[in-house]
Amino acid sequence: MVFAKRLRDGVIRGDITCSVRIWTRPHVTEGRRYRMGDGEIEIESVTPIGFPDITPELARESGFLGVLDLLKVAKHGKGNNIYLIRFHYIPPRGKRKSGSNKK
């Protein structure tokens, strides 16, 4: 999965843990990991949703200012199917999330 440049730091910090995508079919698989920078994201779920499910809260949770901001980025290609993807970031081995202190 590729994220807009402005969202990448939020994904790495763990602030962004979901994404709305408009595709013809899912391009990611639940349980699989995908490279992102030096680390990976692991897909927790891929759920079909409808336009009414895209709320201002979901847009903010996805790292956007609002629904219109999200929709400008969510569409990829000719697809009309909307998917909510939940995931978590896995840092590269030997590196910890910033803000973590070793004891």
Report on the architecture of this protein.
There is one protein chain. This protein is an alpha+beta fold and 103 residues long. The chain has a single domain (5-90), classed as Roll (Sulfate adenylyltransferase), CATH 3.10.400. It is 22% helix and 30% strand. The protein contains 3 helices and 4 strands. It has helices at residues 5-13, 56-61, 67-74, and strands at residues 18-23, 33-36, 39-49, 81-90. A 4-stranded antiparallel β-sheet has the order 1-4-3-2. Strand 2 and strand 3 (39-49) form a beta hairpin. The longest helix has 9 residues, at 5-13.
Termini gap: 34 Å
Structural class: alpha+beta
Fold-level CATH name: Sulfate adenylyltransferase
Question: Reading side by side through the largest sheet, how are the strands ordered?
Answer: 1-4-3-2
**Share in β-strands:** 25-35%
Rg on CA atoms, Å: 14 Å
Number of domains: 1
Number of helices: 3
Defining traits:
globular, alpha+beta, four-stranded antiparallel beta sheet, 103 residues, Sulfate adenylyltransferase, 4 strands
Chart the SSEs and their pairings:
Elements: H1 5-13, E1 18-23, E2 33-36, E3 39-49, H2 56-61, H3 67-74, E4 81-90
Antiparallel strand pairs: 1-4, 2-3, 3-4
